[in-house]
From TrEMBL:
UniProt source species: Paraburkholderia lacunae
Domain HTH lysR-type: 1-58
Domain of life: Bacteria
PROSITE patterns the record matches: HTH_LYSR
Coiled coil residues, start to end: none
This protein's record includes keyword Magnesium: no
Protein name per UniProt: LysR family transcriptional regulator
Keyword DNA-binding (UniProt): yes
InterPro entries in the record: HTH-type_LysR_regulators, LysR_HTH_N, LysR_subst-bd, WH-like_DNA-bd_sf, WH_DNA-bd_sf
Pfam families documented for this protein: HTH_1, LysR_substrate
Length: 314
């Protein structure tokens, strides 16, 4: 088994075609087929089957390709750190929560490009459970997480705390300057994420403590669907302000902060504790933290309270 065979495996899996894989790898098709054959002989099982839509991973292939991706990612990280370079270089994967992507992703890419042009940045979006899993598996280098479960495999750093907001159509009359209690809207049809999503857990804990019973109209883990159902008049929802301020500014939604003391979410920056953090990752993380502190200071991250040190926020 060698690196060429692993790259052939991953590329075929991503393209679904030996021919397309050969084009991307800049080698002839028979060479790709031979690398795959040698790999299958080495592991002792078929990794692909020919399906209606091209090369399809077998069950064994699905398992093996995930390990191959991680192995290649680690080798790429190692190569970028030991090769001579004019500056900091490497591939860095940052995980962002869906509610933070619109505010952070584009600006982070621009900041990294200006400060470290030799760094290739990858942005992965997911909910806390997914992001934490990717960190532990080595598929992400750092991530923003919402109140993650304690884990010895992660080092976490509190970044900010923000209040949750109740969100409805404009005719719901919610206003930023008029906080409401969850009890006041509990009788309305509620659109919430599926359990055990972080916001859902937080809302349910508050309801249990206060003896509140919600009327759940629909459940979805897609934030765009949450807002779409609200726009369609099917209920109200609960989201962090960062997720809906643009919609409120455009008059598409109305929103008010929830005054319940427990309805605060804490966002932390997480890095793996089980492997060395490369210089390139630390450089990107520093830029991300600076960017978030700037957003809080300028009021772009509405209703957020900075939890970093004074040196972080300048």
């Amino acid at each position: 088994m060698d690196i060429k065979q692993l790259r052939a495996l991953v590329t075929i899996a991503e393209t679904g075609s030996v021919t397309k894989a050969a084009t991307l790898l800049h080698i002839v098709q028979p060479a790709v087929s031979r690398q795959l054959r040698l790999l299958e002989e080495d592991v002792g099982t078929a990794l692909f089957s020919r399906g209606r839509y091209g090369m399809e991973l077998t069950e064994s292939g699905e398992i093996f390709v995930e390990y191959a991706r991680r192995a290649l990612a680690e080798l790429d990280r190692a190569r970028s750190e030991v090769q001579p370079a004019a500056g900091v270089a490497g591939v860095v994967t940052i995980g962002l929560l869906p509610s933070t992507c619109d505010l952070l992703a584009s600006e982070l890419v621009a900041r990294v490009a200006r400060a470290y042009p030799a760094i290739r940045l990858r942005i992965s979006m997911g909910y806390t459970g997914h992001l934490q899993n990717w960190l532990e598996l080595g598929e992400a280098d750092a991530a923003l997480l919402y109140d993650p479960k304690p884990s010895p495999t992660l080092q976490v750093r509190p970044i900010l705390e923000e209040r949750l907001w109740v969100v409805g159509r404009p005719d719901a009359g919610f206003k930023a300057e008029s906080p409401v209690e969850l009890r006041q809207v509990a009788g309305e049809p509620m659109i919430l994420p599926n359990a055990p999503h972080g916001i859902r857990s937080l809302v349910e804990q508050t309801c249990a403590s206060a003896g509140i019973e919600l009327s759940i109209a629909a459940e979805t883990n897609a934030m765009s669907v949450q807002k779409g159902l609200v726009l369609g008049g099917l209920g109200i929802t609960i989201l962090p302000s960062i997720a809906i301020m643009d919609d409120v500014a455009r008059g598409l939604l109305s929103a008010a902060p929830l005054s319940d003391a427990d309805l605060l979410r804490k966002i932390v920056l997480a890095l793996p504790n089980t492997r060395r953090v490369p210089v390139a990752v630390r450089c990107v993380v520093d830029l991300l933290v600076d960017q978030i502190s700037d957003a809080v200071r300028r009021g772009q991250w509405t209703a957020a309270r900075w939890l970093g040190s004074d040196t972080d926020i300048g």
